[in-house]
Every structure is written in structure tokens, then in C-alpha cells.
Design goal:
Blueprint (H helix, E strand, L loop, with lengths): L1 H25 L1 H17 L3 H49 L1
Helix pairs in contact: 1-2
């Protein structure tokens, strides 16, 4: 099944390339139109540098979020430990009385 899909994909790709080649040989006007459309399409996609920068920013935000979450978990654990200690102290004082 995977070979069938791969064959169809290769066939479609070759068909597209053949269509482009025929269009380029037919007439200069079509070639200029195609070049314009391809250039327009290329300009719509972000550059590699922009993608790398976005990925780096996302990684930094994820790291900062992880650090903040770790701090909040530690603070909560400290508060719970303190409250548990207070409860134990109260229980010991009640037992002594």
C-alpha cells in the first residue's frame, strides 16, 4: 500500500514538472506569469532565519514557563509542609493536655 501511494505521489510530481516544462516552452508570456506566481508564493513563506528565530523564542518561553512552574510547585510544597508541621504541633499539644 505504501508503494502504491509513493507511486501516485511520484506520478503527480512528474506530471506537474512536465506541465511546467510545457508551459515554459509554449510562450514567454506564460513563463513570465509562472515566474511571477512562483516568486509571489516564495515571498509568502517565511525564511529559514525567521523560522529558526520563532522556534528559539518558543523554546525560551517553554523553558521560562517550566522554571516558573517548578518554583510554584516548590512554594506550594513548602506551604504544605509548613501546614503539616503546624497540624502535628497542634496534635502533640492536644495530646499533652
Amino acid at each position: 500500500m505504501a508503494q502504491f501511494r509513493q507511486g501516485i505521489l511520484i506520478g503527480l510530481l512528474l506530471s506537474m514538472l512536465l506541465t511546467v516544462a510545457i508551459a515554459l516552452t509554449l510562450n514567454d508570456k506564460r513563463r513570465h506569469q509562472l515566474r511571477y506566481r512562483l516568486e509571489k508564493l516564495r515571498n509568502e513563506f517565511p525564511g529559514i532565519g525567521q523560522i529558526k528565530q520563532s522556534a528559539q523564542e518558543a523554546a525560551n518561553r517553554a523553558r521560562e514557563t517550566g522554571e516558573n512552574l517548578g518554583k510554584q510547585v516548590q512554594e506550594t510544597a513548602d506551604k504544605l509542609a509548613q501546614q503539616a508541621q503546624e497540624i502535628l504541633s497542634t496534635v502533640h499539644q492536644t495530646d499533652k493536655e
